[in-house]
UniProtKB/TrEMBL annotation:
Organism: Teichococcus globiformis
Entry annotated with the keyword Cytoplasm: no
Positions of transmembrane segments: 27-46, 58-79, 85-102
Protein name: Guanidinium exporter
Membrane topology category: Multi-pass membrane protein
Broad class of the protein's primary localization: membrane
Gene that this sequence comes from: sugE
Annotated keywords: Cell membrane, Membrane, Transmembrane, Transmembrane helix, Transport
Amino acid sequence: MAWIALGIAGLFEIIWAFTMKQSAGFTRLWPSVITIAAMIISFGLLSWSMRSLPLGTAYTIWTGIGAVGSFIVGIAVLGESVTPLRIAAALLIVSGLLLMKLSSAE
């Protein structure tokens, strides 16, 4: 159950990163409200998952989901550039996440 909560926490991290961008420095109300709500949910689920998962594993997986997910959203929704180096970097992050998951005893 902790892994599911951690995955959902990572998804909410992607949401708050995207809506933070949309908030224009917290000058737009609804994107700002969504950002704060998604942050609270994300941190809450991360905290809950850390009850049984190791700190390093949980935090690395959470930030990795957020980083790669935000990278994908940036490309798909915001039209950010796709370059071979950016794709390679994302693949390295995903590889690290898989290794972290495989090395976890939980």
